[in-house]
Amino acid sequence: MTLHLADDGTALSITKGDLEILRYVYRPDNDQFESPRPYFEPLRDLAGHQVSLYRPHDHVWHKGIALSLPNAGPENFWGGRTFRRDLGYVDEKNDGAMVHQEFTELTADENGVKAVERLDWITEDGRHFFSETRSFAVAVLADDTWVLSFSTAFTNDTADTVVMGSPTTEGRDNAGYGGFFWRGPRSFTEGRVYTADGEGGDELMGVRGDWMAFRGAHDSVDAASTLVFTDHPDNPGAPVKWFVRSTPFAAVCPAPFFDTELPMAPGDTVTLRHAVAIVNGDTGVDGAAEKAGLAAAELAKLAA
Q1: pTM higher than 0.85
Q2: pLDDT confidence bin for 301, thresholds 50/70/90
Q3: What is the Cα–Cα distance from 34 to 241, expressed in whole angstroms?
Q4: Potential cystine with 239: which of 54, 74, 151, 208 (Cβ 3.0-4.6 Å)?
């Protein structure tokens, strides 16, 4: 199913017919405190229902789906204050930015859309920190399902070892967030979480698995959507620990540094690969497992 790709110089818009299913903002205009970085927002299912949230008042640095890392050694590429052991959340004026440099590939054809991008990670005080190459692909698989595949490789360009971690590695329990992070609509609060072992809610924080799904309901229209997230088996720490919340808000993140630090020596590169299937309706556990397999197959094409 052919998708259309448009580029206005700040964002890519991907549409199926008259429906914009995805917008990728690669030159954001956010304040430094929000760690300006590219993000996917809005995302919509193929029925036209929005399944993401932009800049919620409780966490203004949450933006649809974005690669977000709160504890990159001394730096923060998540936004807001940084959690430090014995200090709690501290405003260290260390909110860096992921800065778009160029697209080395942009294609749209009968197989879908693909983009390859170069970025530089710049600290709040203006120092070059990491270099990154990321790619993503969008494919429609059925009348009710499309998949976003995402791959990133970021390299430590500093002269120091940078320890990747999370608030949990700094001492805050069950706050291992960081990575390919999604924030859901307000109406998805108290939604259901599906895993290979069944379904639940907030008690699934920190479980390991190859995939996790979140089903949420929409206001006004008596409809639901399910997002099915996958982790690549070659990612650090796989099978990954999942950061997930259904209250007080909906969020999912495959979190490779949930409770385990990863030192990056100078010149080291970390690669992360994920996919998410956006599905109309409630898949249930069995349906989510099936969609996870389809998403993993799409991710394998991108990673090849």
Answers
A1: yes
A2: very high
A3: 25
A4: 208
